[in-house]
C-alpha cells in the first residue's frame, strides 16, 4: 500500500492523529488541552518565568535575556522553515481529522508552538530551581502533545519543533556565556 519511506511516514503520522482523535480525546481532557495549546497561555507562563528570573539574581537575569534572544531566533527559523516546506495542516490534507480549535492558516512544519515551548524550557532549565525546571519541561511536553490532541499538527511537525529548539539551544550555549 505505502511503497516509499515518505508514504509510510505520512501514513504513520495520520494513524497517530486518528488514534488520538478516536481513543484519547474526551470531554474531560479537551478543555485542558485547548487551554494548554493557546499561544497566550504559553506567553503568560513565559512572562511569569522571565519576571522571576529577572528578579532573582544577575546570573538568572542574564539567562532570561539569552532566553528572549533564543526565542526570537527560534521563531524566525520556524517561520522560515514553514515557508520553505509548505506542509499543509493535517485537517487540510485529510478530511477525517477534526481540529478542536480555530484552524491555523499558516503551514504545519515545523510546529511553532512546540519549538517555542521547548526553546524556553531548554534555556531556563539550568537557571531555575529543580522543581520548577521539571515543571517547565513537563509544560513543554504538554504543549507539544496538545498540538496533536487538537489536531493541528502531525507528529513529525512536533519532532521537528523539538529538534529546532534543541539546535537553537546548543547554538546559544556555544555563542553565549550561559552554562
Automatic annotation (TrEMBL):
TM helices/strands, residue ranges: 32-54, 66-87, 132-150, 156-172
Name recorded for this polypeptide: PAP2 family protein
Pfam family, one: PAP2
Family matches, as PANTHER family: AT30094P, SPHINGOSINE-1-PHOSPHATE PHOSPHOHYDROLASE
Domain of life per record: Bacteria
InterPro entries: PAP2/HPO, PAP2/HPO_sf
One Gene Ontology term of the molecular function aspect: sphingosine-1-phosphate phosphatase activity
Keyword annotations: Membrane, Transmembrane, Transmembrane helix
Residue stretches making up the Phosphatidic acid phosphatase type 2/haloperoxidase domain: 63-173
SUPFAM superfamilies found in the cross-reference section: Acid phosphatase/Vanadium-dependent haloperoxidase (SSF48317)
Amino acid at each position: 500500500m505505502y511503497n516509499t519511506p515518505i508514504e509510510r511516514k505520512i501514513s504513520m503520522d495520520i494513524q497517530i492523529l486518528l488514534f488520538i482523535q478516536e481513543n484519547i480525546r474526551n470531554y474531560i481532557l479537551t478543555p485542558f488541552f485547548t487551554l494548554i495549546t493557546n499561544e497566550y497561555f504559553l506567553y503568560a507562563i513565559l512572562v511569569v518565568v522571565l519576571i522571576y528570573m529577572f528578579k532573582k539574581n544577575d546570573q538568572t537575569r542574564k539567562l532570561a535575556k539569552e532566553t528572549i534572544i533564543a526565542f526570537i531566533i527560534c521563531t524566525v527559523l520556524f517561520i522560515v522553515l514553514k515557508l520553505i516546506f509548505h506542509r499543509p495542516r493535517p485537517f487540510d490534507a485529510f478530511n477525517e481529522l477534526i481540529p478542536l480549535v480555530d484552524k491555523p492558516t499558516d503551514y504545519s512544519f515545523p510546529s511553532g508552538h512546540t519549538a517555542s515551548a521547548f526553546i524556553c524550557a531548554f534555556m531556563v532549565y539550568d537557571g531555575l530551581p529543580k522543581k520548577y525546571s521539571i515543571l517547565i519541561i513537563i509544560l513543554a511536553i504538554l504543549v507539544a502533545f496538545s498540538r496533536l490532541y487538537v489536531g493541528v499538527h502531525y507528529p513529525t511537525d512536533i519532532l521537528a519543533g523539538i529538534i529546532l529548539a534543541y539546535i537553537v539551544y546548543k547554538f546559544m550555549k556555544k555563542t553565549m556565556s550561559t552554562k
